[in-house]
Amino acid sequence: MINFDRNNWFKLALDLKSSVIRDIKNQVLLSMVMALIITILYTNGYPGLSQPILTGLIPGIVLGLLLVFRTNTAYERFWEGWQIAGMTIFTGRNLSRQMWMTIPDPTLADSQEKAAYLRLVPAFFMAMKQHLRHAGVDEDLKSVVSPEQCLELQYVTNMPLKVTQWIGSYLTKQYTQKHIDSIQFASLNRLLDQLVECLSRCERILAAPMPKAYSIHLRHLLLLYCLALPFQMVKDLQWWTIPVVGVVSFGLFGVEAIGLEIENPFGYDANDIPMDRLCKKLHNDTEELIAGGTKLDSIETSTGKTHIQ
């Protein structure tokens, strides 16, 4: 996470990796080239190129409202994605904890089986991340599922949903064998349903992007506004028209680019939700739960205490 303190203010301001400068450089350069051409022609005897009346061509307040609406809509999607990611971790922790505490493992084979299915909880998050990025099975996902499960995931269209089916089958097996009662079974399935709900909400964000017509029209207005700026400024600013147009276009195109970048919060961009880091966090939490439970069982066995399930 970024720490907004005094010491890193300038460091953050000069951070080009997370900036949209690279995305808008062509648009800014086009506006400045247009300003350069108009300035050269004006200073070489074409005073008719000065047209201050073009100020009313596209009212700045209208363009500003359109940009604000575009950015706010994109940020709402970004913030909702963060909330869903947090809910996925919250639900995954609860599910893995309840599975470890309520499902008995009297034998070593039962304990190993339970640990394998507990690892499917972070596997769900990893599969959801890959599914939202329209990618296949990666190395992280391979490390928490069996080779047979990995092969099966490569031939399904919805990997995280398949993972929930495996967990659900395991819970049903435990209930059928009367290892857990109906209340525990219902509670575990409720958490599993919440994971599926998180997946569906993320898919909804991806399936409902900003209407294409709105994005196209906004870009048309931005181009018209920035390309018309030199005609409005050249009489008063002369050669200063070029940098001023560059600064104005940098601000306007930058705001539009930010909205475009955070519109899909599950990608690989620097400003997207750090899905990889969150997946590792849930994976580590699950491994600590398994390791802690295994260590506790060993201590109780060595001291002759009865293992309470």
Task: Specify Rg, calculated over alpha carbons.
Answer: 28 Å
Termini Cα gap: 39 Å
Beta-strand proportion = under 5%
Number of strands: 0
Low-confidence stretches: 298-309
Summed over residues and divided by their number, the pLDDT gives a mean of: 86
Written as H for each helix and E for each strand, in order along the chain, the element string is HHHHHHHHHHHH
Characteristic key phrases:
single chain; 309 residues; 73% helix; elongated; disordered C terminus
Give a written overview of the molecule:
The structure is a single chain. The chain contains twelve helices and no strands. By secondary structure, it is mainly α. The protein is elongated and about 95 Å long. The model is unreliable at 298-309 (pLDDT under 50).
Write a brief structural summary.
By secondary structure, the protein is mainly alpha-helical.
Q: Would you spell out the secondary-structure blueprint of this structure?
A:
Elements: H1 9-13, H2 21-43, H3 60-102, H4 108-118, H5 120-132, H6 139-142, H7 147-153, H8 159-176, H9 182-207, H10 212-237, H11 241-262, H12 275-302
Helix pairs in contact: 2-10, 2-11, 3-9, 3-10, 3-11, 3-12, 5-8, 5-12, 8-9, 10-11
